[in-house]
Amino acid sequence: MKLVFICAPYRAPTKEGVLANIVNAEVHGIDVVNKLGWYQYFPVIPHTNTALFDYDPRVDESSRKNDKYWIAGTSRLLSRCDFVFCPYSWEDSTEGMRQELQFASGHRIPVYNSLSTLVNREIRERETK
């Protein structure tokens, strides 16, 4: 099983905007399942792992507002992944996404902006075996 990290916007000015970003990330994860599940690729969607914890009063306020905490946890998830799927340009990425992409680059985790490119990679890899 290969893990595909979904790199997409999370933060937004409103809770509704964050919810929309979570749904958007889920859609990208569903695309991974639908297009690459056959090849045993599995989406890792940090947005859904701790969805809206930053708005949940049960979460300690100092943790809710601690960006370093969330980035460290997300980076740990990312470190376990085989690929990153980021269907956004650098210019359209958020600060958190840029940190994830820099982490992936520094740890030699391939980043793909298109699932079809990742599918083609898998097909080529299987053909050479």
Shape: elongated
State the low-pLDDT regions, or none.
none
Order of helices and strands: EHEHHHEHEH
Mean pLDDT: 92
**Helix proportion range:** 40-55%
| Number of DSSP strand runs | 4
* Class by alpha and beta content: alpha/beta
- Biggest sheet: strands side by side, in what order? 2-1-3-4
Q: Main sheet, how many strands, which sense, barrel?
A: 4 strands, parallel
How far the N terminus sits from the C terminus, by CA atoms, comes to 17 Å
Strand content: 5-15%
Taking all Cα atoms into account, the compactness measure Rg is 15 Å
Give the helix tally.
Answer: 6
What does this structure look like?
- It is a single chain.
- This protein has 129 residues and is of the alpha/beta class.
- The chain has six helices and four strands; from the N terminus they run βαβαααβαβα.
- It has helices at residues 15-36, 46-49, 61-64, 67-79, 95-106, 115-127; strands at residues 2-6, 41-44, 83-85, 111-112.
- The chain has a four-stranded parallel β-sheet with strand order 2-1-3-4.
- α1 runs parallel beside α6 (115-127) and α4 (67-79) packs parallel to α5 (95-106).
